[in-house]
């Protein structure tokens, strides 16, 4: 068994990281955030074969790199004055005020989001305060939406909650009739919360994303595609 050997190669001005290891096939990947290109190949594949494989996929690589440039990763917030926070689709500038007493968030003049915390509070703690605030705002908005939509759709959830999720806006456990809504929805326009809620409630009528499901969605919430696009746009993080 041979180990891993690493080298670099230039292909038409493109820098490629070459990793020779015990794999079966050549594998080419482009990595975010800057579009680094890496090729993993079996030991027996020659440099010329690698070069040809990269050349053959050059336009695909360029497209990937352009995509990463156009969609930079969400910057990590440090929860300091001057940063932007979104709330119901609107950008608010954050002002951190250090003081004794209860941690608190208030919106000043509908514009500034003021976070009052103790001086020694860590970034992590500030983020927790903000997230708990988002959670409580969502928890105020969800019950009226449920009372409005459940009779219309003819379904009833037994339980619902708010959870910070990485990959989904909402989920529905059909057996338990339990709905989870993503905490991040508080950053998006309110119509997005409504769309996700209706979507999840509809799963109590139709489990799968099939024609019947989308017919129901079209019928009850004709504007759902607009909300979905807003949800997936990068403008509000
Ligand atoms: Zn679904």
CATH topology category name of the largest domain? Zincin-like
* Rounded average pLDDT: 91
Q: How many domains comprise the coordinates?
A: 3
Element-level helix/strand string: EEEEHHEEEEHEEEHHH
CATH H-level superfamily title of the largest domain: Metalloproteases ("zincins"), catalytic domain
| Helical/strand content category | alpha/beta
Overall form: extended
Structure annotation, total helices: 6
How many strand segments? Answer: 11
- Poorly predicted residue ranges: none
Percent of residues in helices comes to 25-40%
Which cofactor or ligand species appear?
A: zinc ion
Share of β-strand residues: 25-35%
Measured distance between first and last alpha carbons: 47 Å
Give a quick rundown of the structure.
The chain is of the alpha/beta class.
Record keyword descriptors for this entry:
237 residues, alpha/beta, Zincin-like, 3 domains, four-stranded mixed β-sheet, 36% helix, extended, binds zinc ion
Write the layout of secondary structure elements.
Layout lengths: L4 E7 L2 E7 L6 E5 L4 E6 L5 H10 L1 H13 L13 E4 L2 E9 L5 E5 L3 E6 L5 H31 L5 E5 L6 E4 L4 E5 L7 H13 L8 H10 L3 H9 L5
Parallel strand pairs: 2-4, 6-8, 9-11
Antiparallel strand pairs: 1-2, 3-4, 5-6, 7-8, 10-11
Helix pairs in contact: 3-4, 4-6
The structure holds zinc ion.
């Amino acid at each position: 068994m041979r180990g891993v050997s690493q080298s670099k190669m230039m292909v038409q001005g493109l820098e490629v990281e070459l990793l020779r290891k015990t794999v079966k096939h050549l594998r080419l990947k482009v990595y975010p955030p800057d579009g680094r290109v890496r090729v993993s190949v079996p030991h027996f594949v020659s440099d010329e074969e690698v070069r040809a494989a990269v050349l053959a996929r050059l336009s695909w690589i360029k497209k990937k790199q352009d995509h990463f440039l156009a969609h930079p990763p969400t910057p990590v917030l440090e929860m300091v004055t001057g940063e932007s926070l979104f709330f119901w689709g609107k950008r608010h500038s954050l002002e951190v005020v250090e003081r004794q007493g209860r941690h608190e968030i208030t919106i000043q003049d509908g514009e500034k989001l003021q976070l009052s915390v103790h001086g020694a509070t860590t970034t992590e703690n500030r983020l927790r305060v903000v997230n708990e605030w988002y959670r409580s705002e969502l928890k105020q908005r969800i019950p009226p939406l449920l009372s409005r939509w459940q009779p219309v759709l003819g379904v009833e959830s037994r339980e619902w909650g708010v959870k910070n999720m990485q990959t989904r806006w909402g989920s529905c456990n059909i057996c338990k009739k339990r709905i989870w809504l993503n905490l991040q929805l508080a950053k998006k326009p309110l119509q997005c919360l409504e769309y996700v809620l209706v979507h999840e409630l509809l799963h109590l009528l139709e489990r799968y994303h099939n024609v019947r499901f989308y017919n129901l969605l079209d019928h009850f919430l004709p504007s759902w595609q607009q909300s979905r696009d807003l949800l997936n746009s990068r403008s509000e993080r």
